[in-house]
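Figure S4 source data
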Amino acid sequence: MARSKEFEESIVLDKAMRLFWEQGYEKTSMTDLVGHMGIHRRSLYDTFGNKHTLFLKAVELYDQQISTALAAGVKRSKTATEALQFIVGFLISGEENPASGCLIVNSTVELSARDADMNNKSMEMFAAEEQLFRDIILWGQQDGEFTPQYDAGELAEYVHNVAVGLRVIAKTSITKEKLLRIANLSIQLIAK
């Protein structure tokens, strides 16, 4: 007779996500995961498969959490400029652990060149972020906030690139003021 699970899967997945976020994929061992998640090694394998599969599920969870928070903030925004300011502010300081950077960006840098699964996930997640930026920029162009001189998709690529760069340098001791200055200049550059 099969034993019932002695843990809540979503809770232990969140714990794994936080450990991968803090340490990265390579530095996180199965022993680290078992200890941090508070489950037996056999339970980890039975529930999540191997370390790689667990990692990909953790990245998906992170993406869902961030996407939900960003969508809610954009929905509350009264203008496209306010929506962009919310996103860059969130990416700079709104995440729970800004010193650890962004799990997606960190994992892309660490693994995408040699891990096809992570590369594909990165491409999907980055495409979704660019689409969010594109939608906001189109909104701003229609309302006269942003320049119509450039295609919204191209501007979205630019803004997304700035956002990824901000998430990378936010891991350093650079000041929030400087990060916000960079973000605000990028928004000013697309303003009408």
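Figure S5 source data
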Amino acid sequence: GDGSAPASGGPGVTSTGDAGGGDREGAQSLARTTDIPVGGGAVFAAQGVVITQPTPGQFKGFDPICTHQNCPVTNVDGGTINCACHGSKFSIEDGSVKTGPATKPLVPKDVKVDGDRITLA
């Protein structure tokens, strides 16, 4: 448990320390816009954010902790942000609960797009 990702993560879900190869303008640069699929997203657990792209060019940020029992969400798949602990699923558009047992939405986080870089706002 030293922050390593579970081996059961879905395809295409990776955690990278520096996807930009070291050429970052800000210390909070999380990803490039091309890293976040339309209709999907990515979990950046170490940075404490899930970034989604519900529609082309629209990026949303959410807290990666499930509101049911504070488990970390594990992936974004099928249009939802998913928690493997008890099966809760949240909307990639607004963090609302799609499938329980969670009853509260994921807490939104502000993200900013500057060119092709996504950062916490």
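Residues 2-27 have pLDDT under 50 and may be disordered. Residues 30-120 form a domain with the Rieske Iron-sulfur Protein fold (CATH 2.102.10.10).
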